[in-house]
Specification:
This protein has 16 helices and five strands. By secondary structure, it is mainly alpha-helical. The relative contact order is 0.14.
Length: about 375
């Protein structure tokens, strides 16, 4: 449905030239979304897929194990959309503080994303509301070091930004002037907490993501925070017990269509086309996450059976193997700390697991060796290849 422009233009002079900045109308869409049979089916399919994703705890021996790995996969993907070149393995190496040759700025950027997500999640678990204050806190963590650290971390912008082009005057899109950002974000926060909203959480997340990207309230990091916002809305609304839905891979795979849809909402008011695109992405992404979890469980079970066939050596090898299920990249020292076993015992078990083809040493060094559970990493890294 084409409603026309979903905001108004504010014309001002920036850097000596006229600029048309777009100020969005408050949510929800007006007139309300149209509900066709197809759209209802998309919502139903996406909701069922999220239900299966939320029940992943029944499938996994430790759902937090999956959350640890999946969050890092999302961090890599979301940061790649912004142009970083860090891989999942490089991020995990960086977290071990043993990452020679890793592009420092890129991997710090990805590590900050993980920290921002974990900060937001811990705040919600404390009972803190999903609010502009929390969004600013997460942004402060996201830009705390590395690239963007000079761009007002944790603060809504006080100057004009733009998307595409070399300056506001030739930009593809110019968000609201800085003096309108606080009010626009206040309206968005009100929408998120509107108890009388006729829309389910999934639709609220779809609408809120577009609105956030349109406001672009920060000087840097808007895309990453905007994608995190989707997961946090669904978690806050208790659709997901853990924030396990991340659409970065879907947006990365359909980048041109994603940006076209955002622009179509702004210029002609076609919220329905965006919602359809969003719901299809949710259904595919949730199904992919469940499939990934199942494949990991099958891998762990298969390798455990192989280890049990080692005979007397199997007990120690299994304890060491299970810490690699928690962290697929580890040194012997870290494995000792996690298992409580002696260095010689862990070293021997790691050698056994390497001979069995379960682990692989990746440094080529004789000291400070790092071992990778490669098949686990390979499953997690699908779609993150640079």
């Amino acid at each position: 449905m084409e409603r026309g422009l979903t905001g108004r233009y504010h014309v001002s002079t920036v850097l000596g030239e006229q600029v048309r900045a777009f100020i969005p109308h408050p949510l929800p869409a007006d007139p309300p979304l149209q509900w066709t049979g197809k759209r209802r089916k998309l919502l139903e399919a996406a909701t069922l897929a999220l239900g299966r994703l939320d029940s992943i705890a029944l499938l996994l021996p430790d759902p937090h194990l999956f959350l640890y790995a999946y969050v890092r996969r999302e961090a890599v993907l979301s940061s790649q959309i912004e142009g970083t070149q860090s891989s999942l393995a490089q991020l995990m190496l960086f977290e071990l503080e043993q990452a020679p040759g890793v592009p420092f700025d890129d991997v710090v950027e990805v590590s900050n994303y993980v920290a921002a997500l974990e900060h937001g999640l811990s705040r919600l678990k404390e009972g803190f509301p999903l609010s502009n204050r929390l969004i600013r806190e997460m942004h402060a963590v996201l830009l705390r070091q590395g690239r963007g650290s000079e761009k007002s971390p944790g603060e809504f912008r006080g100057s004009q930004n733009w998307i595409g082009g070399t300056r506001p005057g030739n930009a593809h899109f110019v968000p609201p002037p800085p003096e309108y950002v606080q009010a626009c974000m206040g309206n968005l926060e009100h929408f998120l907490h509107d108890q009388e909203s006729p829309y389910p959480a999934l639709i609220k997340a779809a609408l809120a993501h577009v609105q956030f990207e349109t406001i672009h309230p920060f000087l840097d990091g808007n895309g990453r925070i905007g994608r995190l916002l989707i997961a946090f809305i669904l978690h806050h609304e208790r659709v997901l017990s853990e924030p396990l839905l991340y659409l970065s891979l879907y947006f990365k795979q359909h980048r041109q269509e994603y940006y076209r849809m955002l622009n179509q909402v702004r210029t002609v008011g076609d919220w329905e086309a965006w919602v359809d695109f969003f719901l299809e992405g949710v259904e595919k992404t949730a199904a992919n996450a469940v499939d990934t979890a199942r494949r990991l469980v099958a891998l762990f079970q298969s390798d455990e059976l192989a280890i049990q066939d080692m005979g007397r050596r199997s007990s120690t090898a299994l304890r060491v193997f299970r810490v690699f299920c928690e962290r697929p990249l580890l040194g012997v020292k870290q494995a000792c700390e996690r298992t409580g076993l002696s260095f010689p015992a862990v070293s021997k078990a790691v050698d056994e697991l390497t001979r069995a083809g379960i682990l692989r040493e990746i440094t080529g060094q004789r000291r400070n060796r790092i071992f990778a559970y490669e098949r686990y990493l390979a499953i997690l890294s699908e779609g993150t290849e640079i």
